[in-house]
Amino acid sequence: MLGYKKYLTAPGQKFPYQVYDRLTLKASAKRASAIVVSSKGEYEDAIEFGIHKKKLHLIPMGVDIPETANRQEEENAPLKILFVGRVARVRRVELILQAVKKLSLPFTVTIVGGEEKTSSLTKSGYLDELKKCCADLGIADRVVFTGPKLPKDLPAFYNDADVFVYPSLYENFSQPILEAGSYGIPIIATKVGIAPEIIEDGESGFLVSGDPEVLAQKLERLGNSSERKEMGRKIQEKVRKKFAWSQIMDQYMELYNSF
């Protein structure tokens, strides 16, 4: 809730959030004995909002660790690029499309998620804009929009992907990044949500700005399957060590028992 100041710019967009802040959130924060935030960015937002550091506890979301990541790569296959999440303007999915147009290697892009239409973040019609963008760039035959999928359907997409890309403008946490990491997929993401805390730039993925040219360069580099596998191994190891639900619940129990 606190991040709206970073991406709502049109007149009047912030007003409902500001009313909520004053009437509900501030009062709730004042009464709370402890407040849990899920990322360093969310922690900084809470400090800026006026919540005392002593009340804040950084405990990330967890992820169900797949028992086996059944990922198989085919020789000479196109680079399979994946995005999972609500298709909203704040996610800047168009940057993926602009970047892949610049690639010299063969590729496919799969966009998994439904269009966000209810938030003031976005107007309806963004999905149509993305499809038009594909047509204008001449890549429509290599981009698939699956629409919304149930959680039980996601493993098939993660297992099939070579690279996960998430160029969002702002996130509180960004659960799909964590999910992709748990499957051993190297990740290219902007410095939002949990991304800076799990991606070691150049080691287990890449942290980028909103520049399609830079994004394309990183995708070209991940066309190397051996480097891709090594990066995937590193990020999977980190996610499994620090973000399994059993470990996250231990942190919550420790906090609960401290009162």
From TrEMBL:
One family name in Pfam for this protein: Glycos_transf_1
Start and end residues of each Glycosyl transferase family domain: 68-234
Any GO MF annotation of the entry: glycosyltransferase activity
CDD domains registered for this protein in UniProt: GT4_PimA-like
InterPro entries listed in its UniProt record: Glyco_trans_1
Coiled coil: none
Gene3D superfamilies: Glycogen Phosphorylase B
Protein name: Glycosyl transferase family 1 domain-containing protein
Organism, as annotated: hydrothermal vent metagenome
